[in-house]
Amino acid sequence: MFLQRTLKQEITCRSIGLHSGRKVGMVIRPAAADEGIVFIRRDLGGNNRVKADVRNVRDTTLATTLGLNGVTVSTVEHLMSAFRGMGVDNAVVEVDAPEIPIMDGSARPFVNLFREVGTQVQGKGRKLLVIKKEISVSDGEGMAMFLPSPDFRITYKIEFGHPFIGVQQYHLKFSDVSYKEEICSARTFGFLKDVEYLQAKGLALGGSLKNAVVLDDHRIINKEGLRCPDEFVKHKILDAIGDLSLLGIPIIGHFVANKSGHRLNNLLLKELMVRQECWTMAGGLGGELSDEVAARPISSFQMPASIQASTPVI
């Protein structure tokens, strides 16, 4: 079976919050098998643990916000994306502010921190959710869907009425290697004309050219330009990986999106939970793999057609 993973050591970092504009301190600690990803607000008292779970999503306006018992943690998608990209199943994330630090606007700083301390396998197998039938949600021009696939892959299309973006489409066959090399460095982006509107709503107060790609009506303002020509669509894929990880277990299927975002990604997961005929649960690969192979990240492998699935329960 594929084994769960956690970090070998705790990680400490500090950066500004994209929407709050406040400095945020964060500590990420190893966690026991089956604990999942849990957020703790150290600036609050009482029961302030919020599990990274689609059922705890409270808002999807420009970022994904989790909440439980009145406690919220915002802008979790980049960190969650890094957890999934690096195959980390269990961790405790402690923050001293209402949101996760934005770092450079991508998931690369988190990936680098995870690589510095390393990950370790745990003594329990990892469950997988295997898509059996097509399932989709839509909202106006936006659409998101899952299709059956022998592995996890993403096809994402965006379209913006801006001369520097236009239409972009990218296909990713997900693995820990493809995530690190193609996706994790893509930064969040926004438009200069929207800044005043967002700040009036208390959002993007910490946004700057250091943590976002900013465009005016005709060009990119950042002097260094883009990290890659398709950085915009790749960042949307980065976000989607983070949003989809809120299911709590890896997905074996093909995620297809057109003009999607946090809201549609979240709606698709909720529809998936209801439509149990569209998926099945798998508990691992048993004796088909050696212990050494089983200890590798799930993202490195394709699901064999012969896998035996258990009764679907979330």
How does this structure look, described?
This protein is an alpha+beta fold. The protein folds into 2 domains: 3-125, Ribosomal Protein S5, domain 2; 128-280, 2-Layer Sandwich (lpxc deacetylase, domain 1), CATH 3.30.1700.10. The protein has 7 helices and 20 strands. The strands form 6 sheets. The chain has a 5-stranded mixed β-sheet with strand order 2-3-9-4-5, covered by helices on one side. Strands 12-13-19-14-15 form a 5-stranded mixed β-sheet, with helices on one face. Strand 4 and strand 5 form a beta hairpin. Helix 1 crosses helix 5 (231-244) and helix 5 (231-244) packs parallel to helix 6 (262-274). The longest helix is centred in the C-terminal third of the chain and has 14 residues, at 231-244. Residues 285-314 have low confidence and may be disordered.
What is the element layout, followed by pairings?
Layout: E1 3-7, E2 11-16, E3 23-30, E4 37-41, E5 49-51, E6 57-59, E7 65-68, E8 71-73, H1 77-85, E9 91-95, H2 108-117, E10 119-125, E11 128-131, E12 135-139, E13 142-147, E14 153-160, E15 166-173, H3 176-183, E16 189-191, H4 195-200, E17 213-215, H5 231-244, E18 251-252, E19 254-258, H6 262-274, E20 279-282, H7 291-294
Parallel strand pairs: 4-9, 11-18, 14-19, 16-17
Antiparallel strand pairs: 1-10, 2-3, 3-9, 4-5, 6-7, 7-8, 11-20, 12-13, 13-19, 14-15
Helix pairs in contact: 1-5, 5-6
Overall SS class: alpha+beta
The tally of beta strands, per DSSP, is 20
- Output the CATH topology of the largest domain: lpxc deacetylase, domain 1
CATH top level label of the largest domain? Alpha Beta
How many separate domains? 2
Give the proportion of residues in helices.
Answer: 10-25%
Unreliable runs: 285-314
Task: Note the gap between the termini.
Answer: 19 Å
| General form | globular
Determine the CATH superfamily of the largest domain. Answer: lpxc deacetylase, domain 2
* Named CATH architecture of the largest domain: 2-Layer Sandwich
**Strand-residue proportion:** 25-35%
Number of helices: 7
If you average the pLDDT, what whole number results?
A: 90
Sheet of most strands:
5 strands, mixed
Strand order of the largest sheet: 2-3-9-4-5
